[in-house]
Structure to design on (176 residues):
């Protein structure tokens, strides 16, 4: 019952360096199980079970950051199918503060999918972005990169921030 959009996203994730193939085994199993569903009720049962598993695993204090990336992608997939994964929002914010570029990338991807501009966690996301922009981090170095594709991604981030209507949040200190 997966849509064409979700199939394109899955294909893009599998063919990128975002997640390694070893990290995709459980994600593949989830996609196959949902694809083989005969009814919406069966799909819902699988997703609810998946969300319970993710909730338990994300609450583990010894969570491996590499596994956390996969969990974020799986939460995005569950939300795309109309289920609530709000338990993962705070964990995604924590991952956005990590130093690992791939973990940070997964977290920002998840947060852009999870949060609406009126969500109270958006202030923490903006604060995390500001900290990243002020740091001497690898990601910040990429923002001044000479390659056009990297600069294009920077512009896409700024456009997304603008779409969030940050002026409604009264964040006049954000340099846009």
């Amino acid at each position: 019952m997966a849509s064409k959009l979700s199939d394109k996203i899955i294909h893009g994730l599998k063919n990128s360096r975002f997640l390694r193939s070893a990290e995709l085994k459980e994600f593949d199993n989830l996609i196959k199980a949902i694809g083989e569903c005969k009814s919406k009720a069966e799909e819902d049962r699988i997703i609810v079970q998946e969300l319970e598993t993710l909730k338990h695993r994300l609450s583990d204090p010894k969570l491996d950051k590499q596994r956390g990336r996969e969990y974020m992608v799986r939460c995005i997939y569950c939300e795309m199918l109309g289920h609530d994964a709000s338990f993962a929002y705070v964990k995604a914010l924590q991952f956005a503060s990590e130093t690992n570029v791939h973990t940070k990338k997964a977290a920002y991807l998840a947060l852009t999918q999870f949060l609406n501009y009126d969500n109270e966690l958006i202030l923490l996301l903006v604060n995390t972005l500001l900290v990243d922009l002020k740091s001497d981090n690898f990601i910040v170095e990429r923002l001044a990169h000479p390659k056009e594709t990297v600069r294009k991604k920077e512009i896409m981030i700024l456009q997304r921030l603008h779409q969030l209507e940050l002026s409604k949040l009264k964040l006049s200190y954000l340099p846009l």
